Request: fold
Amino acid sequence: MAKSVFIDGAAGTTGLEIAERLAGRSEFELIVLDEARRKDDGARAEALNAADFVILCLPDDAAKAAVGMIRNDTTRVIDASSAHRVSPEWTYGFPEVVGRETVAAARFVSNPGCYPTGFIALVAPLVRAGLLPADWSYVCHAVSGYSGGGKALIAHFEDDRDIAFRAYGLALGHKHVPEMTAHVGLAHAPIFAPAVVPAHRGMLVEVPLHLSMMAKAGSPAELRAALAAFYAGSEIVTVVDDQPGELLLRASMAPVDTLTLRVLGSQDGSQARMVAMLDNLGKGASGAAVQNLNLMAGLPETAGLRLQAA
Ligand SMILES: NC(=O)C1=CN([C@@H]2O[C@H](COP(=O)(O)OP(=O)(O)OC[C@H]3O[C@@H](n4cnc5c(N)ncnc54)[C@H](OP(=O)(O)O)[C@@H]3O)[C@@H](O)[C@H]2O)C=CC1
Ligand SMILES: CC(=O)N[C@@H](CCC(=O)OP(=O)(O)O)C(=O)O
Reply:
C-alpha cells in the first residue's frame, strides 16, 4: 500500500521540488492542502497526524511548531530546516556519513544544510580516517545560486538584475556553522564565507588546506583516494580525479541530485583546495529529502532522483 506523505510548506522552493521528485511514484501518496488551507493550523495539524511521513519545508520557527503539532508516535518526520540539525533527538540525514541504516531506522531526520553538505562530505571522512586533523582552524568559502535563500532571495535577485556577486554572513556565526562543526567533530568552528551569484541554482563549496603546516595530514592524492574509497558504490556522490583549469557554475544549470568532490593539490603537495559541487535544491535540499524518505520507507535510495542533469 502506498505510504502517505505530507509536505508542510509545499508551496515553497524546496517543497515544490520535492513534489516534483515524488510525482508519478506509486509508493507514495501526497496529502495536499489547497492554497486557502496550506497555512491553516487546523488543516495542517490534521495532515501532520494523518501522514506516514511528513517533510517540513518551512522556516525554522514554523518547523519547530509543526513538530509540536504531531500528537501520535507513528508519523515520521524529515525536517529540511536548520531547526534540529544538532539536536541529539534527531538523526542527521546524511546517509553516506551517518550510515544508511541509521537514517532508515530513524523517526526524526534532520536534512543537512546545503553548504554543510559540501563541507561535511569533504572533511568528515578525512578527519575520521586521521588524514586531516580535527583541531585545525578550517575555512570554507562557498557560492550558491539564489534559490538557496528561498522565495525571499529569489525575489531579491529577480528584482535587482544588477547584482553580480553577493557576499554575506559577514558578521560570521552563520546558522550552518554549528552543524559543520558538530558533524565533522571539529575542535574549532570553521570560518564560513558564503556568497550568492546571479544563477538560480547550483553551488560550489571550497575548503582550502595548508597541508604542510598540519602536524599530520595526507597528501592530496591520499586525501582524494580516501574520499573515493569512502564514497565507493554511491550513485549520488562521485570523487573526480582531474586537474581542471576552471570549475564553472552555469546559470542554466538543470536540477540534479548528485554531489561531485575534488581534491586539487599544488605540485609540491603542500597545499590543496577541496571542492564540492552540487545543486542546492538537489543533494542540498529536495534531493536529499527524497533520498532520506526512500531509505526510511525501505526503498532504493536513488528512486525518483535525478542522477544526471535533465
Ligand atoms: N532553498 C534551498 O536551497 C534550501 C532550503 N532549505 C531549508 O528549507 C526550508 C524551506 O526553504 P525554502 O523552500 O527555500 O523557503 P521558501 O521561502 O521558498 O518556502 C517556505 C514556504 O513555507 C511557507 N510557510 C511559512 N510559514 C508557514 C507556516 N506557518 N505554515 C505553513 N507554511 C508556511 C511559506 O509560505 P509563503 O509561500 O506564503 O511564503 C513558503 O511557501 C527552510 O528552512 C530552508 O532553510 C534547506 C536547504 C536548502
Ligand atoms: C543562499 C542562501 O541564502 N542560503 C541560505 C541557506 C540555505 C540552506 O541551506 O538552508 P538551511 O539554512 O535550512 O540549511 C543561507 O545562507 O541562509
Summary: The longest strand covers residues 203-210. The radius of gyration is 19 Å. Residues 42 and 133 are 50 Å apart (CA to CA).
